[in-house]
Design brief:
By secondary structure, the protein is of the alpha+beta class. Among the domains are: 33 residues, no CATH class; 135 residues, Immunoglobulins (Immunoglobulin-like), CATH 2.60.40.10; 122 residues, Glutaredoxin (3-Layer(aba) Sandwich). Helix content is 14%, strand content 33%. The protein is built from 7 helices and 34 strands.
């Protein structure tokens, strides 16, 4: 009997575990024998409301014992509410909310609105002795209030003045015309010296200090201003002072560009017909600037046999270095940019520096579509016809360069404020240098025309040639997007400078133009070199400038 009862109990337990929602939690009590309660699903005895708890129970399937527990109150579920009383400037409003479950309502306050004050009416004007006041009225509720404007400022009148000097402050004393009160003095900062150079000046040299003799134009104070010595300015390259031979050593050094002093003197070994030396071939413009276009090809010949040739990777910043036996060689240059040319150069044994000078001239054809000029480009020839210039004259680049040392192009427009500020400065310098330079101011703005350019030139009293030119496309060839832009073309038709932005002084214009007008700018032309000897025999280009 006991075995049958145990089987029934085990079967009932198994069936109970299979029922969905049944619980096997132990209650800690024993009712019929020793067993763990096996509870069925919960049954709600009383439902929970917004404010009151509910109750539920479940029954053990084994012993039929039951257990109960509370269902927590749900709490109110209020909606967003509605405005049942609007707020005003003076009183709060009301908002009523309703619970969606039980229908209970509750009321909350709506804060008062701010007053909408008008501009106000001044009741008492403030003075330095009287506090002012103003009445403000709310445009919504018409409530008024009076606010203070505080005291007014003094009405000062100058009573005395002590002028400032170069090194001491001055001051101004004031009195109020309303209340007669003496006010705080106002300081006038010291003026500082206004120096002008005296006659007893000593310019500094590379090794010795100089001084400036200064006199103040205001107070007459004099002083000498010491100027430190300049120090030697050495080029990167060495100059050969003595060529090596097969029987004797040579010497090389760096020559100071200012005073010619020799620094870093270095011995060059004797030549050995069986020992190579490093040769340095330099591509130079006539003014000494290197041309670094990597597509240029330098070829070295021993008689008719080619022994060395540069490539884009070996021609660095216009310089090609190659080790060769000390012999006489000929050097040619090919693949030059359009507009440049160079002659074949003959070298002699022992001189490792070979300067190859290029010449240039404006290209005698119309610039192809898509041409873009950069510094170092040779200009295509162009003409500004009489129909586009303010003077009614024709201006051709190649013809101008027969007489001038440089041509300046200025790209501008009549509406450009910076152009208006710099043109009087440019005109001042042009009047001083027009024997050596020509200025062509070119307007290509779509909002201008020749008549507006003429009116502009007349109103500013400008004397250099100006043009409205939409044919030559020069502005786009230089990639000009900002104006004013100033371009300098030297005597060979080469673009040397492209300056974007306003020039702020006449001295700045002079400093830009002066290198191209100096006597030494073309001192190293092929003709000058030929008169002194082959450039590959001479130590270096700069020695010709000494």
């Amino acid at each position: 009997m006991k075995k049958s009862l145990r089987k029934v109990l085990l079967l009932s337990a198994s069936l109970g575990l299979a029922l969905v929602g049944f619980s096997t939690a132990a209650c800690g009590q024993t009712s019929v024998g020793e067993h763990q309660h096996l509870y069925g699903p919960w049954t709600v005895i009383s439902a929970a409301t917004c404010t009151e708890n509910g109750m539920r129970s479940h029954t053990c399937v084994i012993c039929k014992g039951s257990a109960e527990e509370e269902i927590p109150a749900l709490g109110h579920n209020f909606d967003g509410g509605r405005e049942t009383k609007p707020a005003s400037c003076m009183q709060t409003g009301e908002r009523t909310q309703t619970c969606s479950r039980c229908g209970l309502t509750q009321t909350t306050d709506i804060p008062t609105a701010n007053h909408n004050w008008d501009a106000g009416v001044v009741l008492v004007q403030p003075t330095c002795q009287t506090e002012g006041s103003m009445r403000l009225t709310c445009k919504t509720c018409l409530v008024s209030q009076t606010v203070s404007l505080g005291f007014g400022a003094h009405d000062p009148v100058e009573t005395s003045r002590t002028e400032a000097k170069c090194t001491s402050d001055g001051s101004i004393s004031y009195r109020c015309t309303v209340c007669n009160q003496t006010l705080d003095d106002v300081a006038i900062p010291a003026l500082g010296h206004r120096w002008r150079l005296g006659e007893d000046d000593l310019e500094p040299t590379c090794t010795e200090a100089g001084y400036r003799d200064r006199i103040c134009e205001r107070c007459g104070q004099q002083e000498k201003q010491t100027i430190a010595s300049l120090g030697h300015e050495l080029p990167e390259e060495f100059t050969i002072d003595k060529l090596p031979t097969f029987d004797d050593t040579g010497l090389k050094s760096q020559h100071c560009i200012r005073c010619g002093a020799h620094e870093n003197v270095t011995v060059i070994p004797k030549l050995d017909e069986n020992s190579p030396i490093e040769y340095e071939f330099r591509i130079l413009r006539n003014n000494g600037n290197k041309l670094s276009e990597p597509s240029i090809v330098i070829t070295v010949y021993d008689g008719a046999q080619q022994v060395a040739q540069s490539t884009p990777s070996t021609l660095v910043n216009g310089v090609f270095r190659f080790s060769l036996l000390p012999k006489a060689y000929t050097v040619t240059v090919s693949n030059l940019p359009e507009g440049y040319s160079a002659e074949t150069v003959t070298m002699q044994p022992g001189n490792p520096y070979c300067d190859i000078y290029l010449t240039a001239a404006p290209i005698r054809s119309t610039a192809p579509s898509g041409t873009r000029y950069t510094v170092g480009s040779v200009m295509y020839d162009f003409t500004l016809s009489p129909s586009v210039t303010t003077s009614g004259k024709s201006y051709t680049l190649s013809e101008l360069l027969k007489e001038k040392k440089a041509v300046v192009l200025n790209f501008w427009a009549t509406w450009c404020g910076p152009c208006q500020s710099e043109f009087p400065l440019l005109n001042q310098v042009y009047e001083q240098l027009k024997g050596d330079i020509e200025v062509l101011a070119i307007d290509q703005s779509t909002s201008d025309n020749l008549q507006s350019v003429k009116q502009f030139a007349s109103s500013y009293g400008l004397t250099f040639p100006m043009a409205f030119d939409s044919v030559n496309r020069l502005q786009s060839m230089f990639g000009v997007t900002d104006i004013p832009t100033t371009v300098i073309i030297d005597a060979e038709g080469v673009v040397c400078e492209v300056h974007t932005g306003t020039i702020v002084s006449a001295d700045q214009f002079r400093a830009m133009f002066s290198p191209y007008l100096a006597d030494g700018y073309w001192k190293n032309t092929p003709a000058a070199v030929a008169a002194l000897g082959s450039p590959c025999i001479l130590p270096q280009k700069r020695t010709l400038m000494d």
